[in-house]
Amino acid sequence: MEKVRSTQLKFKGDKIKKKRKRENHDEGSASKRVEDEDPETWVLPENAAEIRGPTFIIHPSDPSPISVNFDSTRNKIVLSSLDKDSTSDTDTPSLLDRIPTEVAQVWVTTHVAGSATINLRTGTGEGKFLSCDKHGIVSAFREARGPEEEWTPVILPDGMVAFMNVYENYLSVDEVAGGSLQLRGDSEEVGFRERFWLKIQSKYKKEAHEEKKKREAGSELTVIDETSTNHMHQAWGAGRSVVSQEDKKELKRARKEGRLAEALLDRRAKLKSDRFC
Q1: Which of 209, 235, 263 is the last residue of a domain?
Q2: Quick one: average pLDDT of 110-138?
Q3: Which among 87, 59, 80, 72 has a CA at the least distance from the CA of 194?
Q4: Do 264 and 135 have their domain in common?
Q5: Is pTM beyond 0.70 here?
Q6: CA–CA gap between residue 67 and residue 240 (Å, rounded)
Q7: What is the pLDDT of residue 92?
Q8: Which of 68, 177, 235, 247 could, after both became Cys, cross-link 243 (CB 3.0–4.6 A)?
Q9: Residue 57 covered by a domain
Q10: Which residues pair with 183 in a beta bridge?
Q11: Over the chain, what HEC string results?
Q12: Using an 8 Å Cβ cutoff, are 69 and 79 in contact?
């Protein structure tokens, strides 16, 4: 029976039981960094396949970066300043060092089977999906998922992420009357407003690496099987086979006997032809 993974979210200050680090002499490898990191550490994804599990979405707005939150009391998306509780510049961490401090800041990402798209579900309340309709209105009130709840994450060269919806438009931060901010989903190009930083937990990044290794191992086995089959059934074809000395002698003799048989047949045919001339 498969062990059920805990869905409890942990935040800064929580005591975490650390796993033993696996020895690996490849100091520069990405897989070693993933192995060595605490499984609950918040890290940046390097590719779209790694975006899974609890996800922290940040926008580098000015003058204060914001996080995409869900207010379960009001049942709405809220863009909240990450510096609202800071008392001075000295206790303000850099943007990429930010981590979620409350469940409202966390979304749970799942991949749509057989597709490059993902679903983003709220980590608090009853679990509502981030959605965008054809008018670009973004909401999170649906408990079921359909095409309007699917997003395609696009990893940009600088590591930031853009989200494309089913209408091939992008999620963006928009300023409305009064200076307040809201999410929209009708941008046709990716600019500053459409670029987000994402953070995921290290254990989910490790999970993605392990899945990739299994896929690559499966592909390698398939290639080996195909090669073996070709060597078995196509030894006389264009492919070269490595055979023993005895096999080489047998092949040489077979070729020689074949040439002799062909010569005898040609000779008999010529004699028969001369007889009737």
Answers
A1: 209
A2: 93
A3: 59
A4: no
A5: no
A6: 60
A7: 78
A8: 247
A9: yes
A10: 173
A11: CCCCCCCCCCCCCCCCCCCCCCCCCCCCCHHHHHHHCCCCCEECCCCHHHCCEEEEEEECCCCCCEEEEEECCCCEEEEEECCCCCCCHHHCCCHHHCCCCCHHHEEEEEECCCCCCEEEEECCCCCCEEEECCCCEEEEEECCCCHHHCEEEEECCCCCEEEECCCCCEEEEEECHHHCEEEEEEECCCCHHHCEEEEEEHHHHHHHHHHHHHHHHHHHHHHHHHHHHHHHHCCCCCCCCCCCHHHHHHHHHHHHHHHHHHHHHHHHHHHHHHHCC
A12: yes
Task: Please report the pLDDT score of residue 235 as a whole number.
Answer: 38
| Tokens 């309709």 -> residue | 133
Comparing CA positions, the residue from 169, 201, 158 lying closest to residue 60 is 158
Tally the domains of the chain: 2
| Contact predicate 114/106, CB 8 Å | no
Decide if 70 contacts 140 (C-beta within 8 A).
yes
Residue type at position 16: I
CA angle 169, 124, 91 (to 5 degrees): 85
Residue 171 and residue 68 share a domain: yes
Residue 225: inside a domain, yes or no? Answer: no
pLDDT tens-place string over residues 205-224 = 999 989 888 888 876 655 54
Q: How far apart are CA 130 and CA 139, in angstroms?
A: 6
Which of 152, 186, 209 is at the close of a domain? 209
Contact 197, 156 (CB under 8 A): no
Range of the domain at 259: 245-277
Query: How far is C-alpha 190 from the chain's CA centre?
Result: 21
